[in-house]
Amino acid sequence: METSRKFAAHTPTTAPAPAWERWLGDRARVRSARGLHRVESNRELLMDLASNDYLGLSGHPEVRAAAADAVHRYGAGAAASRVATGTLSVHRELEVALCRYTGRASALVYSSGYTANLGLLQGLGGPGSLFILDAHAHASLIDGARLSGAKVATAAHNDLADLERLLEANRDSATGAPRVAVVLESVYSVLGDAAPLAAAAELCARHQALLVIDEAHSLAATAQGSAVRAAGLADCSHVLATATLSKALGAQGGAVLLGGGQAGALREHLVNTSRTFLFDTALAPAAAGASLAALGLADAACLGRLAANASLIHETLAADPRLRPRIEQGAGAVHSVMMPDAPSAVRAAASLRARGIAVACFRPPSVPDGVSRLRITAHADHDPTDLLAALHTIARTILEEES
Q1: pLDDT at 207 over 60
Q2: How far, in Å, CA of 353 to CA of 265, rounded?
Q3: Would you say residue 230 has pLDDT above 70?
Q4: Which of 19, 139, 328, 394 is 20 to 30 Å apart from 271, CA to CA?
C-alpha cells in the first residue's frame, strides 16, 4: 500500500513543461508571421500537377497487382533489417532490374530515398573525408553529410569554377582531407534545372574525388530513364548514384546505384557500414513489388508522353508575356513560376485548389534562393487537352492573385 501511494504521488501530468509550452507557442507565432505555416494536404479529386507521380504509375493496375502479389507472397512487412533475415527475393529482383534499367553494375535497395542518401554519405564519411555539396542540394543530402562526421563545404549552385576552387583548396591545404566526394543532384527539385554531370564527373576524376549524384527527379523521368546513363557515366567507378522509388515509379523506397570495377566492393562496404541499411527494417514487400512492376512500364513511350506534357506546360505559361520572365523551364518534369512573395504564392495555390487544381507551393526555407514559387509538375498520364485547360486556369489565377 505504501508503494502504491509513493508512485501515485509522482504521477506525471499530461501537459508539457512551461518552457516547452512557451517554445512551441513562440515557434508557431514565428511561422505565422513569416507565412510559413503548413498543413497536411491531399490531391484526391483534383487535377494533380503537384505530386511526384510523374508517370502516373502509382495507381496503374499492373503496379497495384504486383504490390498485392508481394503482400500475399511475403507478408505486410520484411520483419527485419536486410542483414537480419529481412532480405527477400523481391529485393534481389528489384536490384537486378534497377541495374538493367540504369546500366549500372550493382544496386542496394533502402526503405526510402532519404535513407539511401543518409546511408551512402554516412558510409563514406568520417574523419579524413570531405563532402562538397551543391548549394541547392536536397535536405537529405545535407543531413547525410552533416551526420557523417566528414568535413562539409558548399559550392555555388551549378558552378564548376567554384567547385574546382574548393577541390584545389583542399588539395593545396596542409590539413586537406585525403578522401573527397562531390555531392549534387541530376535534376534539382525546386528550380527543375539540371547539373552538368559529364563535366562534373571529369573534374572529379582529375581530382581523384568521388561524384555522388542524386537521381531522385531523373530516374524514369528523363531521357534514357537515367541522367547518369544519358551522360555516359553508367560504367564509371567514381560516380555513385542514389534514387527514390517514390516519384516516377509511384511506389516507395530508395536505392544506391554503383558502376564500374569498384561497384562490388562499394556495395559490400555499404552492407557492412551503412547505418540506415543495417538498422532499418528492409523495404516493405509491397513497395518492392510495385517498384519492380513500374520499372517494366517506364518505357520510351511513357517517357515520351511525360516529355511532351512537360514541354506543353512551359510553352503555354511562357506564351503570356507577363509570366514569361518568371517561368523556369525544368530539365525534367518540374517547372516553377516565381512569385512576388510567400503570401501571394500561398493565395494562388489555395485559389487553384478551390478550382480543382493541385500545384505545389514552395517558399522559404524550402527554396534555396529564398524566392517563393509555384511548382507545376508534368505527368505522363494527363490528357493534353485537359492539361491545356488547367494551364490557362493557372496563368489566369496567378495574375488575379497579384492584381
Answers
A1: yes
A2: 49
A3: yes
A4: 139
pLDDT 10s digits, 106-155: 999 999 999 999 999 999 999 999 999 999 999 999 999 999 999 999 99
Confidence of residue 87 (pLDDT cuts 50, 70, 90): very high
Determine contact, residues 270/120, Cβ cutoff 8 Å: yes
According to DSSP, residue 282 is labeled P
- CA-to-CA distance for 224 and 303, rounded, in angstroms? 8
Q: Report how far apart, in Å, the C-alpha atoms of 88 and of each of 114, 216, 371 are.
A: 21, 24, 45
Helix (H, G, I), strand (E, B) or coil at 336: strand
Question: Please, which residues bridge with residue 360 across strands?
Answer: 375
| Contact between residue 335 and residue 313 where contact means Cβ atoms under 8 Å apart | yes
| Structural contact between residues 258 and 107, judged by C-beta atoms closer than 8 angstroms | yes
Question: Residue 173 half-sphere exposure, CB side, CA atoms within 13 Å?
Answer: 11
Q: Has residue 99 got a pLDDT over 80?
A: yes
The amino acid present at 127, given as its one-letter code, is P
Q: In whole angstroms, what is the distance from residue 49 CA to residue 336 CA? A: 11
Strands 210-214 and 106-110: unpaired
Please state the length of the chain. Answer: 403
Confidence of residue 16 (pLDDT cuts 50, 70, 90): low
CA-based torsion, 44, 48, 51, 55: positive or negative: positive
Q: How far is CA 159 from CA 16, 99, 129, 187, 292, in A?
A: 47, 30, 22, 15, 36
Distances in Å between the alpha carbon of 354 and those of 42, 348, 393? 13, 10, 12
